[in-house]
Amino acid sequence: MTWLITGGAGYIGGHVVAETLNSGREVVVLDDLSTGIRSRVPELVPFEQVSLQDRNAVCDVFSRYPITGVLHLAAKKQVGESMIRPDHYWQENVGGLINLLEAMSMHHVTNFVFSSSAAVYGEPNISHGELLRETATCNPINTYGATKLMGEWLSNGYVAIDGLTVAALRYFNVAGAGQQHLGDTFALNLVPIVLTALDKNEAPTIFGNDYPTPDGTCIRDYVHVQDLALAHVAAMTFVEKSDPGFESINVGTGIGSSVSQVIQAIAQAKGIDISPSVSSRRAGDPPALAADVTKAKELLAWQSRYDLTDIVTSAVAAWEHNKNSISN
């Protein structure tokens, strides 16, 4: 089996490529390198620097490789940016997906794993401590989440048109590092944002401490990127063996941690004290999200192995490794 992995030079993508290769599958990586890093992709893996906005170039990739499945990671993903540049996010995340699905249709590729997000849920009407099931109403409150929900709808539509078998992985907050050189190097997620601030001798910022949560800061379900990579491989196996259809599947730990708790875990991993500053809430941030992962256990035979301490410790080690590599 040969899988095309879009966004395979990204932080998540690099881990997914590594585990896909470990599963015995062949891999082709497509990435425009707008945020990806070429060195994350092993040298022997075919690499295509192509934008999903270039429909002809995408189709050409399918013409040159015996692709049997597609794992679609490539997307713009900053919640705040999506609220001020909604047109850009619709074009990149939805327009690009349409080009990809059309290329799959033309070349009769029916196995599809879609990188979705817990952002599709928006602000679910659940009580504190209640876990989100896939049956919860999807009502995204930011453009990023809306583009991901549209991606689910589009791929589901191709089930009837082309007989696709789709697993849409709704993952929660991804952090950590499975291999140090694959660590997250961009300040787009909470842990690297905090580490970037500390490197500049600045106080990290908490956006809002007046949420209806125990310590007033947002609660999220943090999942180790290595666990997530293995979930993708399990999803590949699932779609390869399943009849045409669509399944949305949460990927998380089932345990919520607040922003303040994550910052404290970083302080412990670095052996320092951290006194964050507090700013106003960001538009589009729901108070609390944590996953019910029963479906992932049942359909994918998958569950997370790492906790918040593991996640933060590995993230800090990778950050220091990559920082030292750059300086040297």
From TrEMBL:
The keyword Isomerase applies. Residues 3-252 form the NAD-dependent epimerase/dehydratase domain. Pfam families: Epimerase. Its cofactor is NAD(+). The keyword Disulfide bond does not apply. Keywords: Carbohydrate metabolism, Isomerase, NAD. GO terms for molecular function: UDP-glucose 4-epimerase activity. One of its GO terms (biological process) is galactose catabolic process via UDP-galactose, Leloir pathway. NCBIfam families: galE. Belongs to the NAD(P)-dependent epimerase/dehydratase family. This is Unannotated protein. It comes from freshwater metagenome.
